[in-house]
Amino acid sequence: MEELLKMPIVGIVRNMSMDDFREILPVYIEVGLTNIEVTLNTPGALEMIKYANHEYGNKLVAGAGTVCDLEDLRKALNAGAKFIVTPITDITVIEECTIQEIPVFPGAFTASEIYQAWKAGASMVKVFPAGSVGPNYIKDIKGPLNQVKLMPTGGVDLLNILDFFKAGASAVGIGGKLFDPTLVNEKKWKELFQHFSAFVKVINDFNSIMKNPS
Fold first, then answer.
1. Where are the domains of the chain?
2. CATH fold of 2-209
3. Less crowded by CB within 10 Å, the N or C end of the chain?
4. CA-CA distance, 156 to 190, in Å (whole number)?
5. CA–CA dist 8, 34 (Å, integer)
């Protein structure tokens, strides 16, 4: 968790080809991004997780997303996933991750679901879909549940990412808004580097302000 939160963006890979994945990882790492989630409903997801860990395990924290049950969890861990993300709050998955000391970010939406996931042992709770409610929802949840680490996911982009962190998010999950489909499909890796860099700059500027408030 400490390593993951140094650069608190979790890039979500969904329905990306292995060839594009291989091309993107060096760009992703070079710009300073360090966490990547491959959803299990992506064709070849387990091979992609294995590849990321084997080739870049000292520079990248690769985890599995869309883990819905214990069988999914078993496959993800066998592939070497370093963290687990779920779309739902499945207590058995959370508890098993806690036993195995694997960071787990279960999906939840309401205050009750978020607290239930946290109480069950979640390392951080994925608030999904965050885009439909916006940063103020994170701020409202953090009011009574200030101890809970939240990772808004879905609808986070370059225009609102800073607002989510100001509202109290510990990290954010970003899919297509980070892995821009047009840039990926057209294999514009230099442009993708610049796109990634813009996200990293927001995080670095925010961290600098937090360390040295005026």
1. 2-209
2. TIM Barrel (3.20.20)
3. C
4. 22
5. 9
Tokens for 42, please give them: 């992506």
**CA-CA distance, 4 to 68, in Å (whole number)?**
22
Yes or no: say if 78 and 90 are a contact pair by the CB < 8 Å rule.
Answer: no
Pairing type for strands 150-152 and 125-127 reads parallel
CA distance 134 to 51: 35
The string of DSSP letters for 19-80 reads HHHHHHHHHHHHTT--EEEEETTSTTHHHHHHHHHHHHTTT-EEEEE---SHHHHHHHHHTT
Tokens 């047009």, residue located: 182
Token look-up 């709050």 returns: 89
Could you identify the residue written with the tokens 């940063």? Answer: 135
Distance CA 113, CA 175 (A): 23
Q: How far apart are CA 8 and CA 36, in angstroms?
A: 11
